[in-house]
Design a protein that fits this description.
With 311 residues, the chain is of the alpha+beta class. It has 9 helices and 15 strands. Strands 6, 7, 8, 9, 10, 11 and 12 form a 7-stranded mixed sheet that branches. A 5-stranded mixed sheet has the order 2-1-5-3-4, covered by helices on one side. Strands 14-13-15 form a 3-stranded antiparallel sheet, with helices on one face. β8 and β9 form a beta hairpin. The protein is elongated and about 70 Å long. The chain starts with a strand and ends with a strand.
Length: 311
């Protein structure tokens, strides 16, 4: 019988198949061929733990190791001392946050809690969640799934809950410049049977969508923007090597994520939506806070807003 195993390595993410009667030695050889690495450690599970690669364990069968369906993280072992590489710079870092302020050392687990900054394109929530779930091009795909879910659950998602008739809400939802929020997060939690823990930078409050499920992903909310929180064995590894799912019994990972959020809070990595000055990019209207912006949107249909900095 073939066993499916996912690999996360510096050269990207892939999937391999091995016979359940194969040995650990066979698996190591296959990983060497797949990753073109000679020396490495292997980690798996929630939380990550080392796979024993000592000679005495090489004859263990894959079936006995219970690796079916697991994701194995491949961490290279340097053969010679090297100058540590600079952390990769995020594509979008608002409010002047430096790249080295978007990670938190986690020696106990041999890596870092990191902030993966999402593009500021009105689809940040979908990109943050979709990336954690390894969904390619998540914005249009997740929007369509949510719209279908709303329309097929009319007694649950009424006009009173949505704030507008379901058909109108979904039409608006499908537009690429429409933001996602609590309703969409709750639906995604049901669709993917996963808890979505959203940490608010300003208050450090954790909002849990889908509480009671077995697996969790973590996102960060900074007032008008969502980012993703992940675990990286090394800051030089590509995003494909990130760990983005954890067992919901693992409260330590949520504590560490809040510590990262607290670090960002000190740098004022958030927007106070109650009193920030906002400008309509269509007609140059200027107002205060998301509430006034919402009224302006309903009155005019304008949906493109930007935060103004008052000198």
């Amino acid at each position: 019988m073939m066993i499916q195993i996912a690999l996360r390595a510096p050269n990207g993410q892939s999937r391999i198949q091995v016979e359940d009667e194969s040995t650990l030695s066979d698996l190591v050889a296959l990983i060497k061929s797949k990753t073109e690495l000679e020396r490495f450690t292997l980690k798996y599970g929630y939380p990550l733990k080392n796979l024993d690669l000592t000679p005495a364990s090489q004859s263990s069968s894959i079936k006995d190791l219970k690796l079916r369906g697991e994701t194995i993280v491949v961490a290279p072992i340097d053969t010679a001392p090297q100058t540590p590489p600079e952390p990769p710079k995020p594509a979008f870092v608002p409010k002047g946050i430096e790249p080295d302020e978007t990670s938190l050392d986690w020696p106990a687990r041999g890596g870092y809690m990191v902030l993966r900054v999402m593009p500021d394109d009105n689809s940040c929530m979908y990109t943050a969640v979709g990336g954690a779930l390894s969904i390619p091009n998540p914005s249009s795909f997740l929007r369509s799934q949510i719209a279908e879910y709303i329309l097929t659950h009319p007694t649950e998602y009424t006009a009173a809950i949505l704030g507008s008739p379901p058909q109108k809400y979904c039409s608006h939802l499908l537009e690429k410049d429409t933001w996602g929020g609590a309703i969409e997060l709750s639906i995604l939690s049901d669709l993917y049977n996963i808890e979505i823990s959203s940490i608010d930078v300003k208050s450090l409050r954790v909002d849990r969508f889908g509480e009671g499920k077995e697996t969790r992903i973590i996102i960060l909310y900074s007032g008008i923007h969502y980012d993703r929180i992940a675990f990286a064995l090394d800051l030089s590894y590509p995003v494909d090597c990130d760990v983005t799912k954890w067992d919901t019994q693992d409260e330590e990972v949520l504590t560490k994520a809040r510590q990262l959020a607290a670090q960002l809070q000190k740098m004022h990595y958030y927007t106070d939506t109650t009193d920030f000055v906002i400008k309509c990019e269509v007609c140059n209207w200027i107002g205060k806070g998301m509430k006034e912006a919402g009224v302006h949107q309903k009155e005019t249909g304008h949906k493109e807003f930007g935060e103004m900095t008052i000198q």
